[in-house]
Amino acid sequence: MNLGAFMAMLFSFTGAAVTVVAAIALAIRFVRRADGSAREQLSAEELDAIRARLAELEQRDLRVEEIEERLDFVERALGRSREAPQLRNPSEK
């Protein structure tokens, strides 16, 4: 192997290693920065607003469940009325 080919391989492997190390360092910096911003505390007003919204959504869920139960009842009632025989009109012969 000549010296030129050896140097080319050495620089390519070294360049690849430097690139990998730099990418890892950037990823670690990004994760630390993202982790630091996630630790921010919410104010009392923001927490109260979130709690109020959560209570509102829970009430809405209860209302949707009630409407679903009513719909199921109506569907069953309509199904029974269609299955029942039609009553004969006594005035018709």
Oligomer: single chain
Percentage of β-strand residues:
under 5%
Helix- and strand-based class?
A: mainly alpha
Gross morphology is elongated
User: How many domains comprise the coordinates?
Assistant: 2
Indicate the radius of gyration in whole angstroms: 36 Å
Largest sheet: none
Order of helices and strands: HH
- Measured as a percent range, the helix fraction is over 70%
The strand count comes to 0
Q: Could you tell me the mean pLDDT?
A: 82
Low-confidence stretches at least 5 residues in length (pLDDT < 50)? none
Put simply, the count of helices is 2
Distance between the termini: 113 Å
Description:
The protein is mostly helical. It has two domains: 1-39; 41-83. It is 82% helix and 0% strand. It contains two helices and no strands. The protein has helices spanning 3-38, 44-83.
Features:
93 residues; mainly alpha; 82% helix; elongated
Summary of the model, kept short:
Helix content is 82%, strand content 0%.
Write the layout of secondary structure elements.
Elements: H1 3-38, H2 44-83
